[in-house]
UniProtKB/TrEMBL annotation:
<dbReference type="GO" id="GO:0005737">
    <property type="term" value="C:cytoplasm"/>
</dbReference>
<feature type="domain" description="Glutaredoxin">
    <location>
        <begin position="50"/>
        <end position="116"/>
    </location>
</feature>
<dbReference type="Pfam" id="PF00462">
    <property type="entry name" value="Glutaredoxin"/>
</dbReference>
<dbReference type="InterPro" id="IPR036249">
    <property type="entry name" value="Thioredoxin-like_sf"/>
</dbReference>
<dbReference type="InterPro" id="IPR002109">
    <property type="entry name" value="Glutaredoxin"/>
</dbReference>
<dbReference type="InterPro" id="IPR011905">
    <property type="entry name" value="GlrX-like_pln_2"/>
</dbReference>
<comment type="similarity">
    <text>Belongs to the glutaredoxin family. CC-type subfamily.</text>
</comment>
<protein>
    <recommendedName>
        <fullName>Glutaredoxin domain-containing protein</fullName>
    </recommendedName>
</protein>
<keyword id="KW-0963">Cytoplasm</keyword>
<keyword id="KW-0676">Redox-active center</keyword>
<dbReference type="InterPro" id="IPR014025">
    <property type="entry name" value="Glutaredoxin_subgr"/>
</dbReference>
Length: 143
């Protein structure tokens, strides 16, 4: 897996190296080897129905994963390095942030290409009864 720029950790997280290929010796998952971190983040958001962008060893990300797992959804988790975290707001823009500021600090969860926000937003969505229908709508959960 490391030849693809992926590493698996004991907590079921997958680390994706988003640094440009010219700075790494391994090959990139991207077809376009000149793809920027922002473009990779946008692509990952469109390719996965539920994705969490996090920092390494983030306890809030662990809680997000546990909440989703109890519902029956296993999200894609991308752990970002500090230099990659700065690419997250740039990649979001208005299309993902609902016209807001675009600044979403990690961990940030996306469901169906829509930025839900952080842990508090995910829990609020769950407590309001809107999380399961949203997961069903994007095809991440079958009931």
């Amino acid at each position: 897996m490391q030849e693809l720029g992926l590493e698996r950790f004991s907590n079921d997280a997958v680390y994706l190296d988003l640094t440009p290929p010219s700075q790494t010796s391994s090959t990139s998952l991207s077809i376009d080897e000149e793809e920027s971190s922002e473009a990779k983040i946008r692509r990952l958001i469109t390719e996965h129905p539920v994705i969490i962008f996090s920092r390494s060893s983030c306890c809030m990300c662990h809680v997000m994963k546990r909440l989703l797992a109890t519902i029956g959804v296993i999200p894609t988790v991308i752990e970002l390095d500090d230099h990659e975290v700065s690419s997250l707001p740039l990649a979001l823009g208005e299309e993902y942030s609902g016209g807001g500021s675009g600044v979403v600090p990690p961990p940030a969860v996306f469901i169906g290409r829509e930025c839900v926000g952080g842990l508090e937003s995910l829990v609020a969505l769950h407590l309001s009864g809107h999380l399961v229908p949203k997961l069903v709508q994007v095809g991440a959960l079958w009931v």
